[in-house]
Amino acid sequence: MPNFEPTLRLPYQYPRHLTVPQFVLDEVSHPLRPSRLRGSPWLIDDASGRAYGSQEIRERVERLARAVKERWAVGAGDVVCLYSPNHIDYPIVIWAMHRLGCTVSCANPAYTSGELEYQLRETAAKLLFTSTAALEVASKAWEAAGAGRGRIVVFSPPPPDVLPTVQQLVSSGWHMDKNYLEPHGHSVGDSVAFLGFSSGTTGLPKAVAVAHRNVVAVMLQIAAHHQANAAGGREERWMRPGDLVLAVLPFYHIYGLVAIMHAMIFAGGGIVIVQQFHPQQFLETIVRRRITHLPLVPPIVVLLLKSPMTKKYDLSHIRWVVCAAAPISEQVLQEFRALLPRAHIGMGYGLTETTTLVSLFDMHRASVAGSSGFLVPDTVARIVQPDGRLADPGEPGEIWVKGPQMALGYSNNKQVTEETFLPDGWVRTGDEGFVGKDGSLHVVDRLKELIKVSGFQVAPAELEGHLLLHPYVQDAGVVGVPDDYKGEVPLAFVVLKEPLAQKAASGPREAGEIKQELRKWVSDQKVRYKWLEGGVEFVHAIPKNPSGKILRRLLRDQAKAIVDGRQKKRNAKL
């Protein structure tokens, strides 16, 4: 069986002679780059209303680069870490560091000092940009990592006088002559732009080396996939001049970093930057800013569906919504389409190792139920069976992909790189899926997370999506627990809506009735081996990482404690 091919290939090569800022800021006439309204903003801070246009962005990037070079002499190969929530100067810092030849490593601002220290050590960071709110943790981690004194810069508001701010550096750079040589050459795009840390579902997070050319490829692939420069009426276009994209997803994650910050700016959208997600503020921003494009993750989609607050806001101006970064069921997505009937809504699929992109729904083609869209341009996939055989259409197996957006490998981890990044350019995703006869890609779940019941594979995401449709359920997570006869059986952790949570807490009989109702909800509509024979447990929250992926290792720890407790009770009765 041949590999599964994309429906579109670009008629020209992906540039390898440009860095990310050279492509975003300097290459203004690319044939896939849509035009903008004259003077329209590229970046907008939602809280303050501060906006940067193209010229101010270029100036701030240049002045910051000069000031950082003068003060710390960082350059080619040095790593700079950003440990901050979304900020309007976040892209400015990234592009200024790239102008100097530095590699950027973005860190979760919710990290503890130990977690940040690990990332600082892994990357050997030479300079740290952080926020005032995170400064205490950042300083502790920086000192523990032995990274050197006086190498911390703070985003606004102003920190103690001993530390510079981004704005102070930009102002001081205004009076400097250019003092650095920007990276150049026919293969400069092969150099590392980002060290993006994987989600770490197994073991410690690993630093994925993402090249400049990988990021440039994603910008071009998304624009081509959505026919950003196609002829046609204004309403038919994916991104119209003046359209606004809401950047509520974190920039430190590969999704927010590449698919939003870079690809949406290249496509002509204005990026409205929100520091953190708060439901009411999120809805108010959508209405006040007249947001047209919404990149989301499943937890936000579920929250919008479940919250009565959503119906109080007019969201009819939203034109395009993509949900990615974690599984979501087709049933939940259909309900979301009913909530926003005027919007084109679908899924995308990718991972840090593929610079966030493999497939994407196509607003110009009919939606394929349950799929993550179609392979983006110049991306090839194969579905591989455990014995190495290539699968036929509709037959599940491990998803392998190849394309210009494949990252370089894991930094300082040769063994894992060789296991994932194969010599002939293929990347093993570790996800199970299949390709339909129409070419749509369907992602089932992580191979390591599938539950084996009597030899049958059960995808936790399928059961979670079904449980989320029940009116009692606010959130859900499913893992397998050992069973003497079937090997494993599914156990569901459920967050109940109020007042059902209060009812369940009122006594064992009431809790038992609700559990029975939820088990019946599954058994009435799913094949026998998918039933919740491991039981239902009520919890206050489902642990997730910032991109919305369920942290199943934590759920498995809870499940093990529950199973052990059940066994002790049985033993006590013997």
TrEMBL record:
Keywords: Ligase, Membrane, Transmembrane, Transmembrane helix
Organismal lineage: Eukaryota, Fungi, Dikarya, Basidiomycota, Agaricomycotina
Residues of the AMP-dependent synthetase/ligase domain: 48-410
Domain AMP-binding enzyme C-terminal: 462-549
Pfam family, one: AMP-binding_C
Highest taxon listed in the record's lineage: Eukaryota
Protein's name according to its UniProt entry: Amp dependent CoA ligase
InterPro entries reported for this sequence: AMP-bd_C, AMP-bd_C_sf, AMP-binding_CS, AMP-dep_synth/lig_dom, ANL_N_sf
Chain ranges passing through the membrane: 244-274
